[in-house]
């Protein structure tokens, strides 16, 4: 039961009077569990055929005669980009269900943040993406973290900066050291987020419901995953934004030695 209102307590801190609304959230909880189970099941089923599809695309891309055929080569690059996008989405769904069942596992290794950012950015240099992406590598900062998961966080933030863009405005990435932590920022000059929506963007399944955002598809799990994954690494994640001007998403990770 969720309670919203005022309670009066006695000296033993026992509530003796309550005025407000009591809401039964059992059904809501059950609904969420059903939704999560369904997502987990569908994602598992989709993973196998998608892995095969990805392998076939790779085989075709490696075929010599395709390289001399510009149209086929360009089509295959587009196909590969879309298959990767779908694989990323399915992995996100699987991570949501792993988080739910407490089965998320971190495979921590040492790596340089600059290297990971460059690697993630490379995946965005497909001909279909017109947004200019700027990154000037910062100092060499070594972290001990799950490289794949942090890559997923950076990928989600850059994908959003591109998705909620306006007229191909540039997206900038940066990385610096502050109070013994690595700080990674992704800033855009896109739609921005209204003040009332900003505190909710990291909630699961939360999507801003305004005129501009409504036509942009999504599930509202990208930022939720970023939040969970960064907190699992003992880091913090923040969103700053001005409606109509743009947004800055930044997160911190503890540095290996300081
Ligand atoms: P999705 O993009 O699938 O809806 P996310 O969890 O990634 O889910 O984001 C939640 C919401 O936060 C989005 O629906 C969008 O309204 C808002 N949002 C996220 N990133 C940005 C951004 N860079 N600029 C403007 N709005 C954003």
TrEMBL record:
Transmembrane segments: none annotated. Residues 41-257 form the Histidine kinase domain. This is histidine kinase. The lineage of its organism: Bacteria, Pseudomonadati, Bacteroidota, Sphingobacteriia, Sphingobacteriales.
């Amino acid at each position: 039961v969720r309670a919203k209102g005022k309670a009066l307590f006695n000296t033993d801190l026992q509530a003796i009077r309550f005025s407000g609304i009591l809401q039964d959230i059992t059904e809501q909880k059950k609904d969420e569990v059903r939704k999560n189970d369904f997502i987990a099941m569908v994602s598992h089923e989709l993973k196998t055929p998608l892995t095969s599809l990805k392998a076939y695309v790779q085989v075709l891309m490696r075929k010599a005669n395709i390289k001399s055929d510009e149209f086929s080569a360009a089509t295959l690059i587009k196909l590969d980009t879309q298959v990767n996008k779908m694989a990323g989405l399915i992995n996100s769904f699987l991570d949501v269900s792993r988080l739910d069942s407490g089965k998320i596992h971190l495979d921590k290794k040492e790596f340089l943040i600059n290297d990971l950012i460059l690697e993630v950015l490379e995946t965005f240099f497909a001909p279909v993406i017109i947004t200019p992406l700027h990154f000037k590598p910062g100092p060499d900062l070594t972290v001990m973290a799950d490289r794949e998961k942090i890559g997923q966080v950076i990928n989600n933030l850059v994908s959003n900066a591109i998705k909620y863009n306006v007229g191909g405005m540039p997206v900038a990435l940066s990385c610096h050291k502050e109070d013994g932590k690595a700080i990674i920022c992704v800033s855009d000059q896109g739609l921005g987020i209204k003040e009332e929506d900003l505190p909710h963007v990291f909630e699961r399944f939360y999507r801003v419901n305004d005129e501009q955002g409504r036509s942009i598809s999504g599930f509202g799990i990208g930022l939720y995953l970023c939040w969970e994954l960064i907190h699992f690494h003992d880091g913090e994640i923040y969103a700053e934004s001005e409606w109509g001007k743009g947004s800055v998403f930044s997160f911190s990770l503890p540095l290996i030695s300081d």
